[in-house]
Amino acid sequence: MKEEIRYALWMAHNKRCVYTGNLIDNYSNLEIDHIIPKSLPKDKYAKHGLSSDYDIENSLDNLLPTIKWINSSLKRNRPFSLNTEKFFREIALKAIPRVENERIKFRNVLKKAENEAISNHKKQYEFEFSESKKFETKYEFTNREEFYLSNHYWNSKNSIAINAHIPSKYEEYGNCVIEIKNLDSMISLNHQEIIELIKQKKEQNISKVLKRGESYNNTKIFTVIFTNAVHLPNSIFNDLMILLDHFLTVYEENHKRFIDKIQAVDLKKSETHEGFELMIINRNLWKKLLDYSRKYDIDNGDSQDFFFSYNGSYLIALDETRSHIRFTITPASTENDWYDSFQYPDNEVKLIWNTPSTQDLSKIEDGSVWTAKQVYDWLTSTIKLLSVEDTNKTKRKRRFLAQF
């Protein structure tokens, strides 16, 4: 498999294992899984909805990033059902535009490195600002509501500009690039870094967060923004603080719109999975929830409101039409990693509500897809129901034993 495809799949899925939600922070631990095994005989393609000429090895809708031990042990010990296989292929299909975009980025990076090597370009760490080169003072904010389009933000002042993608009601994540004229490299911030700056801003003035001291006989300010460090003239530093303060305010307001839409205001963002923490329960209760999903599996019956696609590892609920995933709940151990939460039954399990895909978020309005709060309320009532059933079983057992 081409390295650009491996890398693109890794980046398109936010460097996470699709099956566990765990971060694959070490590229060497990345393994690309074929949802439908490469070993599947061609005479069985039709059963899986494949044409006879389907490229099972290289088709992007059959490839997902995972962790080596997941691909080599857990998944192979528990083959996918056709419904689960369909579910993951839909995830892969929806990710194809992002994968192709990351492939283009990968090629551009290689081309840039090649050009720099040829020209033997020497990076300049010191720079002077030329009065003849300036941005125009301009502010633009484009509010978009379409799928796969984030809000766009531009704010510039003299020799500095912030160009950013802002969260929308369909997109949780944004990013920004800070460009300073005549500085060879740009300062880029991802969503997590922006959220961290917003938190720090609430505790103290943003200038105190970023200013690390004065330099060049007090004519410049040594500025550190995460892994980016530059010496900025006083006037440029002041402009940066004004623009950055405004940008963080706008970013926070629009990110809150997304959180309000999915009704996750009171929930903590998961640090290990793509979603929000619902609650912590014991392993035995989690097993009962899995048994409940098996009872109302799409092939066995329904729970009146929706169907389940049982797989024995996490909860996947489908709406009445079976065309949308109503919600997905993933377990995460509070003490060990995801796999350990199944090895050791006494461990507590943290339940994560998986954030719906961009397209599925539009289905919240008609109820086909549930918000985090709706899932939390369903989970609470279902656990209460299962507890009552356990209590009744215990009472019946005691009455039976009392006869002897």
Architecture overview:
The chain is α+β, with helices and mostly antiparallel strands. The protein folds into three domains: 3-119, no CATH class; 138-261, no CATH class; 268-401. 38% of the residues lie in helices and 22% in strands. The chain has ten helices and 16 strands. It has helices at 3-12, 68-77, 82-119, 191-203, 206-210, 234-261, 283-295, 340-343, 358-361, 372-401, and strands spanning 30-34, 63-67, 138-142, 151-157, 160-166, 175-180, 187-189, 211-215, 220-225, 228-233, 268-269, 275-282, 307-308, 315-318, 325-333, 348-354. A six-stranded antiparallel sheet has the order 11-12-16-15-14-13. The chain has a five-stranded antiparallel sheet with strand order 3-4-5-6-7. Strands 8-9-10 form a three-stranded antiparallel sheet. Helix 1 crosses helix 3 (82-119). The chain is globular, with a radius of gyration of 26 Å. The termini are far apart. Mean pLDDT is 81; it is low at 120-133 and 334-345.
